[in-house]
Amino acid sequence: MDHSVARGAFVGAALLLPLSHHAASAQPAPFTLTYATYVHGLNAMNMEAVVALTAQHYQLQLSYRLTGLVGTLFSGQATSTVDGQFRGNTPVPSRMVSTGVFRGKHRVTAIEWKDGNPVITQLIPPVEEEREPVPVADQAHTIDALSAMAWLFHQVAATGRCDGAFTTFDGRRLSDLRAQTVGEEVLAPTTRSSFQGPALRCDFEGHQTAGFLRDTDQDSLRKPQHGSAWFARVVPGAAPVPVRITFGLRAFGEATIYVTGPS
To answer: pTM of this prediction?
Structure first.
């Protein structure tokens, strides 16, 4: 098995990063949300998002750990952090670091942005060991997925809509991400989540365009992956955050992420 479970789940997990849309301050107070991911009825991954965000600045940390049968079979965990600013409505990341272990293999990615372009400062293992490197020209003016999500949540907080598009680069893969507003829906209660009630539904689509694993079916990997995210208020005084996310995993079908509460 390749990294499809962790990679697909992390794409969905990127949508967990919430926004506190208050007046800007030098040190916004962070808050924490917890989430659980289910695949075929089994709890496959738990996540935690720690966020400090204003209208002009964002600091995000997202951690996940594979759990249950999936965790027993494949053993994976990672923590990613990003720091950046909003210039107008545009997210401008300054530094992103991701560290973790998957199936016993240590992984590190560190990227800094210079004049709006990503510069990889650390990459373990080297991309050439597993993938076709993304051409430097194609990396220009891209951002990381967490910064793209910060922009999307800024839009939800400010306008009640979630329409946007970005090209993202994580040091290994180049992808296009798009989101669009669907409208308000009512989420039924479930023992898997701490939330029930009305929420704003946003549909999203992502597809990889470069940085493919060697000796794989690129046509299959290029096919768009679709999902939906529902936003609602769960933290008093804060903006709406994702309370449920569904998305497809190529090899395993649909996964669902549920908010389990502030912590």
So the answer is: 0.85
